[in-house]
Design goal:
Elements (H helix, E strand, L loop, with lengths): L4 H29 L5 H5 L7 H14 L1 H4 L18 H10 L14 H13 L2
């Protein structure tokens, strides 16, 4: 079988694409099979939210978060923060440590109690 240069290029491209998809699938399976990368987060005490903390958290949100997440937290540059399906500890961890290339860290700006207030505010959003 004698293939043209274009045919060989097409086969090579399909092979590379297949290998890439296979690697991505394996990575996804590996991630799902891994012990929770949040083990340290979920092992920490759960953050208890209160209406009083939510009021304080709303002020912090307006100061530090609304620029990206919108004044009403429905998203803008950053995602919508209503009805979050992650744990309070995970929310606190994200606020404290940020998300590389997406969200800054607030560890130096807010202490644990202030972060708990932000979590309380986010939990009050429906």
């Amino acid at each position: 079988m004698n293939l043209s240069l274009e045919g060989k290029a097409l086969i090579s491209a399909l092979l590379v694409a297949s290998l890439s998809l296979g690697a991505a699938g394996l990575a996804a399976i590996s991630i799902r099979a891994m012990p929770s990368s949040n083990a340290a987060i979920t092992a920490s005490p759960e953050i208890v939210t209160t209406p009083e903390l939510a009021v304080q958290g709303r002020e912090f949100f307006g100061t530090s978060c609304s620029e990206c997440h919108g004044d009403d937290a429905t998203g803008d540059e950053g995602p919508n923060l209503h009805n979050l399906s992650i744990s309070n500890a995970r929310i606190a961890h994200t606020i404290k440590n940020g998300i590389k290339g997406e969200m800054p860290t607030f560890a130096k700006k807010y202490d644990d109690k202030q972060i708990a207030a932000l979590v309380s505010y986010l939990r009050s959003l429906h």
